């Protein structure tokens, strides 16, 4: 699914992120553990095509990200889940179905399925910004999966959650990734979290 070769990016004075080779197979959940400032998010941003000042190569599904005719097509094959959920000042339902709307599709059945999978169906008419932190994370994850991406990039998505919520959400997330036959990369500072998911 992902191949990275001879990746090199200087992202702060005196600090260069280097990855000689990294391969993530289709359907694999891959964990990257490192301290704050080690370059984990920078690597995810490069894979997600948010950052392109690196040297070396990144391939997604065999497609070279620099030579592919449409970066938008590649981006639509993946979803990015941030440490802090970025939610619209809209209902939970409208937040979750946003990726489908951006693709010019409306699929109430798929949106309802994601709401149920992440156990937020009962919140669909509530304003997403008024939810608890755990509920916001569930909305963010449901939105990431609604378009059935081949690749999920997870940037410390459980960072601000209490342990009891984190464990429950991780169990659900692992099942849903496997059920959707998606590949995933999780970056985290927490070894237990990486081992539990990946």
**Strand line-up in the sheet with most strands:** 2-1-4-5
The residue ranges in which pLDDT falls below 50 over 5 or more consecutive positions are: none
Instruction: Describe the global form.
Output: globular
The number of strands is 8
Number of helical regions: 8
Strand content: 15-25%
Overall pLDDT score: 87
Termini separation comes to 16 Å
Helix amount, in percent?
A: 25-40%
Q: Largest sheet at a glance? A: 4 strands, antiparallel
The H/E string reads EEEHEEHEHHHHEHEH
Helix-strand category = alpha/beta
Radius of gyration: 17 Å
Report on the architecture of this protein.
The chain has 198 residues and is an alpha/beta fold. The relative contact order is 0.19. The chain has 8 helices and 8 strands.
Describe how the helices and strands are arranged.
Blueprint: E1 2-12, E2 15-24, E3 29-33, H1 40-47, E4 55-60, E5 63-64, H2 71-75, E6 78-81, H3 92-96, H4 98-102, H5 108-117, H6 133-145, E7 151-155, H7 163-179, E8 183-188, H8 191-197
Parallel strand pairs: 3-8, 6-7, 7-8
Antiparallel strand pairs: 1-2, 1-4, 4-5
Helix pairs in contact: 5-6
Task: Please provide a brief summary of the model.
With 198 residues, this protein is α/β, with parallel strands linked by helices. Helix content is 35%, strand content 25%.
Descriptive labels:
198 residues, alpha/beta, four-stranded antiparallel β-sheet, four-stranded parallel β-sheet, 8 helices, 35% helix, globular
């Amino acid at each position: 699914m992902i191949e990275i070769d001879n990746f090199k990016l200087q992202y702060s004075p005196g600090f260069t992120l280097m990855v000689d080779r990294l391969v993530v197979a289709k359907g694999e959940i891959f964990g990257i553990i490192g301290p704050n400032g080690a370059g984990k998010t920078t690597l995810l941003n490069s894979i997600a095509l948010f950052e392109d000042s690196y040297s070396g190569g990144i391939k997604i599904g065999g497609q070279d990200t620099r030579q592919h005719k449409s970066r938008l097509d590649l981006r639509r094959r993946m979803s990015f889940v941030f440490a802090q959920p970025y939610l619209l000042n809209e209902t939970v339902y409208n937040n979750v179905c946003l990726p489908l709307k951006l693709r010019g599709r409306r699929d109430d059945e798929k949106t309802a399925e994601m709401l149920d999978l992440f156990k937020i169906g009962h919140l669909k008419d509530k304003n997403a910004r008024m939810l608890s932190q755990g509920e916001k994370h569930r909305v963010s994850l449901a939105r990431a999966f609604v378009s059935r991406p081949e690749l999920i990039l997870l940037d410390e998505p459980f960072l601000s959650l209490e342990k009891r919520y984190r464990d429950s959400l991780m169990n659900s997330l692992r099942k849903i990734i496997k059920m959707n036959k998606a590949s995933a990369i999780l970056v985290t500072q927490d070894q237990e979290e990486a081992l539990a998911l990946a």
